[in-house]
């Protein structure tokens, strides 16, 4: 592929919430087998791509994050150009709003968006399978963000089944002022306390997800809450504000409440903001 200039492109990259996160086993390679229901939500970062001098040049604004190869945006760009065997001449600007190390998948979302944007800008040299393979090398959550649809995820997160009729819920998300290491949470998880994947997901699907509070479940919550008990307190505030259910997302520490309408969620946002420590977000489902 020949080097060529590309037009500037800006994209929004969503956060995600885990409404179910079950750890169903550990593989021989050390990765954990998961069963999860993930939904993309409208808390977003913004990425802008344009032609630059030789190399990959990343600048970041907003929440401080690295501008080097430890950033998934940089690694995704490097992986793309390696796969298509082209020398990069690329400038990337990342405006970071999604909290970092918070259980919301912001880094994974940025990485997936980078792969998709570059594939589009350079004439779609990679097909869907190539993109998914490359995404998985960057992280378990990255393949989900290639599609940004409510999905059931299995394996390490790479086997995805979209849920096309997911209801129009609204979410109030609270990110307390602590950072949580995903590796630390998994290392402290007692697998014998989890239950294997079974058919419990089928009934809510048939009911149209009407009893959302009964569906929410996160095997990692006990581990993170033991170290940060404020997570439990935030859940109580969300329920008192009218949430149909509240849960920690991913490995935490972000906690979300589920609401049936934007109006209910907006009222709850005002209530919660005056009673918890941390950042509070109002979000609907993200749509590209």
Helix/sheet category: alpha+beta
CATH topology of the largest domain: Ribosomal Protein S5, domain 2
Q: Radius of gyration in whole Å, from Cα? A: 19 Å
User: What is the CATH C-level name of the largest domain?
Assistant: Alpha Beta
Gross CATH architecture of the largest domain: 2-Layer Sandwich
Ends: how far apart?
29 Å
Mean pLDDT: 91
Can you give a write-up of this model?
By secondary structure, the protein is an alpha+beta fold. It has 2 domains: 9-161, Ribosomal Protein S5, domain 2 (2-Layer Sandwich); 165-283, GHMP kinase, C-terminal domain (Alpha-Beta Plaits), CATH 3.30.70.890. The chain has 9 helices and 11 strands. It has helices at 72-84, 106-121, 128-138, 182-187, 202-206, 212-215, 221-227, 230-240, 262-273, and strands at 9-26, 32-51, 55-62, 89-96, 151-155, 159-162, 170-175, 217-218, 245-248, 255-259, 279-283. α1 (72-84) runs parallel beside α2 (106-121) and α2 (106-121) runs antiparallel to α3. The model has no long low-confidence stretch (mean pLDDT 91).
């Amino acid at each position: 592929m020949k080097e060529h200039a590309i037009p500037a492109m800006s994209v929004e990259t969503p956060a995600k919430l885990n409404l179910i996160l079950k750890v169903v086993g550990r593989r021989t390679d050390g990765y954990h087998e998961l069963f999860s229901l993930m939904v993309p939500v409208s808390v977003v970062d913004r990425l802008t791509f344009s032609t630059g001098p030789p190399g990959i040049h990343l600048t970041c604004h907003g929440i401080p994050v690295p501008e080097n190869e430890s950033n998934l945006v940089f690694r995704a760009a490097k992986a793309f150009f390696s796969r298509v065997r082209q020398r990069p001449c690329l400038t990337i600007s990342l405006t970071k709003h999604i909290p970092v190390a918070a259980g919301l998948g912001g880094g994974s979302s940025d990485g997936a968006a980078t792969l998709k944007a570059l594939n589009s800008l350079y004439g779609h040299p990679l097909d869907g399978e190539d993109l998914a393979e490359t995404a998985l090398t960057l992280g378990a959550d990255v393949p989900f963000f290639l599609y940004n649809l409510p999905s059931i995820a299995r394996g390490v997160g790479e086997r995805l089944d979209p849920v096309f009729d997911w209801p129009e819920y609204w979410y109030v998300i609270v990110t307390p002022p602590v950072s949580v290491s995903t590796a630390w949470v998994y290392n402290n998880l007692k697998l014998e306390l989890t239950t294997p994947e079974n058919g419990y997901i089928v009934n809510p699907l048939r009911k149209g997800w009407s009893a959302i509070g009964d569906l929410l479940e996160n095997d990692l919550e006990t581990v993170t809450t033991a170290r940060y008990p404020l997570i439990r307190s935030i859940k109580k505030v969300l329920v008192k504000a009218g949430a149909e259910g509240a849960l920690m997302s991913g490995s935490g520490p972000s906690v979300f409440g589920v609401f049936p309408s934007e109006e209910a969620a907006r009222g709850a946002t005002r209530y919660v903001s005056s009673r918890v420590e941390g950042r509070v977000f109002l979000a609907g489902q993200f749509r590209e």
